[in-house]
Amino acid sequence: MATESVVARIEVTKPWxxxxxxHALADVVYSGCVTQGPKVKEFEAxxxxxxxxxxxxxxxxxxxxxxxxxVVAGIGPGDDVVVPSLTFIAAANAVTYxxxxxxxxxxxxxxxxxxxxxxxxxLTLDTRAVIVVxxxxxxxxLDPIRALCDRHEITVIxxxxxxxxxxxxxxxxxxxxxxxxxxxxxxxxxxxxxGGMLTTRRADWAVRARALREHSSNLxxxxxxxxxxxxxxxxxxxxxxxxxxxxxxxxxxVQLKRLPEMVERRRKIAGTYMEALAGLKGLRIVSDxxxxxxxxxxxxxxxxxxxxxxxxxxxxxxxEAGITGRRGPYAAHRQPAYRWxxxxxxxxxxxxxxxxxxxxxxxxxxxxTASINRVINAIRNTAxxxxx
Length: 388
Ligand SMILES: Cc1ncc(COP(=O)(O)O)c(C=O)c1O
Hints:
With about 400 residues, this protein is α/β, with parallel strands linked by helices. It has helices at about 20-30, 40-50, 60-70, 90-95, 115-120, 140-150, 205-210, 220, 245-275, 310-320, 350-355, 370-385, and strands at about 55-60, 80-85, 100-105, 125-135, 155-160, 165-170, 170, 180-185, 195-200, 285, 290-295, 300-305, 325, 360. It has twelve helices and 14 strands.
C-alpha cells in the first residue's frame, strides 16, 4: 500500500488562547452572570488604562462600536464622512447606517494608510468626520491629520481594529483621536471571539454610548440592575442592543495581559520573514513607519511587476504547498454595495494598486520555525523556479 504523506496545513492566522482563558470563562459560567456585568466593567477599565484612554465602552463588535461612535459624534443625514476605500467595509457601512455619505479617499501605498493629503483631496463642504485606519496594525500618521481636521472642525475617528499594541510616536495608537474603535473578532491580535470597544477622552460621549448600547435605558447609565428595588425604566432615545457579554470580557482580560508578549512574538516572526525574503527582487514587505511601530497583526507583501509571478500565481503556489495565503484588503469602492458611489475628485490609485497586488502571510503566535521556513521556501521557489 502506498504511503501518503500528509503535510499539515498552515493557516494564515490563529488565535492564541489557552488554559487561562478557559479558566476565566469557566469562572463566569459558574458565577451565574453570563451577560454584560462586572467582567465587562473590568475589561473596559483595563483596556482604557492600557491604551491611554479616559473611557472605554465595550460592545458586541467593532462595527457596532463604530456605529455608536458616529451617533455620539452627531453624524447623520446630510453629512459626509471621509473613509479610506482600502479597508474592511464595516467603516463605510456604519457611515451609511447613520444616514451620512461615505466619501472614499486614497492611501499611501508605502503604509496602506490615509494621510493628511489623501484626506484633503476628498474633503467636501459637508465633511463632518474622517475615519482613519491603522491598516493591518500599521499606525496612521495622526498628527498632520489632526492639524487638518482641527482647522476644519472635523471629528477624527480612528479605526484601530487591527492595532492593539501598535504605537504612534511612543504612545498607544488611538490616544490622539476623538474616538477610537477596536475589534476583538477572531482574526485580530487580541480576541474575545467577537467583540468591540470604543475609547474616548470625552465623558459625555462615553456616557451616551454606554446608554445607547442598551436601548438608551436609564438603568444602563445608573447601573439600576444592581438594585433590588425594580427601578422604573425609561428609554431616553432610540438605542440598540450592542452589549458584550461577561463571557467575552473574561477572555479579553486575559488576552490583554498577554498583549505585550503577543506583539513581541509577531515582531520576531515578521523579522524572520523580512530577513529571508530581503534579497528577492519584486517583493516589498510592510514595515514600521518612521513615526511608530506596528504589532504585525497582518504581515502583507506587495508583489511588484518586477517579480517573476503575479500575486494570484504566488497565492496558488502557496496553496499547493498547503499554505493559506490571503489577498490584502479589498477596495470598498469596487464592491457591488458601493460601486455606484461618487468618489469625488480623489484618485484611488494607491488603493487599487495595493488591493490588486498585496497578500498576507501566515503570522500567529504559535507558528513554528519549520512552518515559517515552508512559507519562505514556497515564495523562493516561485521567485526562482527549478530549472530557470
Ligand atoms: C480595519 C478593520 N476594521 C474592523 C474589522 C472587524 O470588525 P468586526 O469586529 O465588526 O468584525 C476588521 C476585520 O478584519 C478590519 O480589518
